[in-house]
Amino acid sequence: VQLQASGGGLVQAGGSLRLSCVVSGRTFDRYSVGWFRQIPGKEREFVAVRSWRTSTPSYADSVKGRFTISRDNAKSTVYLQMNSLKPEDTAVYYCAGSVSTGTTLYYRRAYYDWGQGTLVTVSS
Question: Within 10 Å of residue 106's Cβ, how many Cβ atoms?
Fold first, then answer.
C-alpha cells in the first residue's frame, strides 16, 4: 500500500490550501484515511478523518469550521481543504490509512499505512 500526499506550500495567514492523498495498492472503498500533522519537537496530532463506513467526518477542535476532509472513491483520493489558515497550522501534514472505523481513528495507533508528509507553512 502506498499513500502519496501533496499540496503543501507557503501561504499567508487567512489563505487556503488543498492537500491531496492518493492511495494505491489496495481497495479504497473499505479504507479509512485520516490526516495528522507534526511540528518539530512535538507529537504528531490528529487533524481529520473520513471513515470508510460513515459519511460523517471528524475533526480536531483546533480545525473545526476551517478544514474540510472529503474523499473521491473513484480516484482513491482523500482531500483536506484548509481555509482561514493560521500561523499555528504550520506543520508537516501526513495522511494515513486504516481499515478501522470509529473513534480509534483519532489515534495514531489505529493506522499502519503512512504517506511521506507535505509541509504547510503559514506566514503571519
Answer: 16
Using alpha carbons only, give the angle 69, 34, 4 rounded to the nearest 5 degrees. Answer: 95
In the chain, the percentage of residues whose pLDDT exceeds 70 is: 100
Q: Mention every residue, 6+ apart, whose C-beta is less than 8 A from residue 40.
A: none
Q: How far apart are CA 52 and CA 31, in angstroms?
A: 5
| Nearest-angstrom CA–CA distance, 116 and 124 | 26
Q: Is 119 exposed, middle or buried (0-12, 13-18, 19+ CB in 10 A)?
A: exposed
**Which residues face 99 on adjacent strands?**
none
The tens digit of pLDDT for each residue in 11-28 reads 999 999 999 999 999 999
- Beta-bridge partner residues of 82: 17, 67
Cell of 34: 485520516
